[in-house]
Amino acid sequence: MQGGSLTFALIGLLFGVWLVGAGYAIWTGLAMRRRARASLRQTAKLSRLMETAPAVPVIVRGDGKLEASERFCLMFGLTKLPPTMNELLAELAVGGAQSGWQNLSAFVRETQRTGKSAICRLSLDGSPRRFMAKISLADAQIYPNGAAMLWFFDLTDTVREIERLEDESQSARNAFQALAGLIEAAPLPMWHRGPDYRLNFVNKAYVDAVEAQDGEQVVADEIELIETVNGKSPFAFAAEAQETKVPCERLVSATIDGKRRQLRVYDIPMGDIGVGGLAVDMQDLSDARADIRRQSEAQRNLLDKMSAGVAQFAGDRSLSFANLPFQRIFNFPEDWLSEKPEFARVLERMRENSRMPEVRDFPEWRAERETWFRMAVPVEENWLLPDGTHLRLVAQPTPDGGLLLIFEDRTEQAQLASARDTLLRVRTATFDNLFEAVSVFSSDGRLSIWNKRFAQIWTLEEETYLATHPRFDEMLPLLGNSLEKASHVSILRELLQMTITTRQPRRSKIAFKDGRVFQMSTVPLPDGNALLAMLDISDGVQIEQALRDRNAALSEADAIKGRFLANMSYEFRTPLTSISGFAELLRQGIAGELNPQAQEYVEAIAKSADRLSQQINSVLDFTQGEAGALPVVRKPVDVADFVKTVADSFAERLSQNGSTLALDIKPNAGIVMGDSQRLRQALSSIIDNALEHGGKNVRLLVHAAGDRNSATIIVSDNGPGMTAQKQALAFDTFTRSQSAAERSTREGNNAMGLGLPLARKLVELHEGRLELESQPGQGTTVAIQLPRNAKAA
Length: 793
Known about the structure:
With 793 residues, this protein is an alpha+beta fold.
């Protein structure tokens, strides 16, 4: 029983142990199942992760065999995986990519031998795709024979992005370098301030402006270009721009190259990197604006002084300027123009004032004129106003979109043009009817104008020859056929050439075969041409020759007359001296006592002999004066003394004639250099002439005065005076009109008509002047002017 119980106990125990073991096995199996499922899930995840990983793994065993997924074949376009590395290289390593794959093979062998990792870039021939292989030693527990683990990455997109970024980077570097070069070479001072608002970069223009050596010195010494303005430093302006994030602009003055210049300064916020700045030199612009203002004012002042009307319209078509002639031409009130009316309104006001041309459709006409504002070229028109005024209009578009109108009053020019046309017609008619032959030759010697007389004199056809405007050289052979000597045609050539060359008038004569003689004259014209005029002087030449012959005969007759008078005067002296001597002897009683009647006869004979002697002396003096041989002894002569002496010599004759002589001698009469005898003779002849022509009871006045240069003696009477015809003959020898009775009663020089001519001759010998003034019924005045110091002295 005990053995059975023990057996049952053992069996129970075994069964319990088995049961426990079975339970444990079941529990362990279930746990392993759970772990297997987790491993499968993890493997699936890893497999999925490997499929989607950016890298494709490849195992290269020690014997060169490959292990890879289908993804590797898809990556390189392989239909199947080559079994070994050499076959893979043989299939992929072709063309330009061969060196990359050979490097891959070398890197694999190096890694398998040394365990050193490597990276190799790869590409496919003819494909833009790019790859990278990362080579390392595989896990020795999995691949104990020294396998290499290759991770292939497809870098096509990455390489492209890198290349793009590299291109952008290079472009950015180039742009930065260009910008930096531009800033450095910019003529404007430019700078950059860091976050602390201190200078850290300036360009060359800044360095030159502050007269520093280089930019490093400017930054190190913190040399500021802009001065503090109203207590605000450049740092404050930069800080304000940085805080407000808005560029700060201001106009300041600075000293550049020793000169004060106006600068427009900009502080530009640039975020965290600081503040940029630049300065624009506005001095030239300011000066230019001032010049423009001055020029505009000067232009407007000039336009106000112009005779043409000027009106300027702004870009909005309003009137901006109108000068005084414009107001006058169109009758515009000044206050209305000051309102700056528009262009259309100005045209309407012109129409209201009847100061524009008459048109049918005014709105259309006005619209056409409004298009002037948009035209690129000036427009010119002629306006005929209802009152007959002619206006020339020039419409000039201005760059600002405005319009400048200039109205020139050409009424006078139109009238002058009409008058000119009339004058041209008159000139043509006159030209063709001149007695002179006229022709005009241009500077090149070509005939341009001629009249009918020119063609007739030279017997040239106008329509067939002259109308072709031949050259003067071509005409010379034809002109020579009409001349007395054909060689004289050279005279014509020289006249015309000298006139054209020297621009001086020339004159000559030329004879024709038919005996005609022409006076030729060439005159330079203002336009560079030369005028040839020919006047027929044949009759004048004949008359001139006749006058020459007559003049020669008259000269010879005058010489004969002079010789005759001289000879006769000398011949008369011998018997006249005898008569005077015998008369004087009879008067002294040499021949006995004479009765009163005989005594009277002797006195008459002596008196007549004296008169005859005086006349002979006058004739001799006059003939010697005409011949320039009359002797004159020049000594100081007191004018007052010789005038009184002459007046006293006429005392007896004045009393017999019932005439009077008054003297008016001024203290300044003074002294002259001359021959006292000749001067007394001249004054005596004048007084004698006044007594002879004045008749009875003549009143004479002798006035003597002078200045520092000359002395003047004036003899005036109240006689009958002289007509203009008698005045013309007063100084002609022996031609003064007188009757026989007058000649018989006159005494002295005036009996022969030598009084005034002899007086003038004597005065002229003293370098003086004698003048006569007389009117019928108002007496006669004779003035003698004698120089103080004559040339002959």
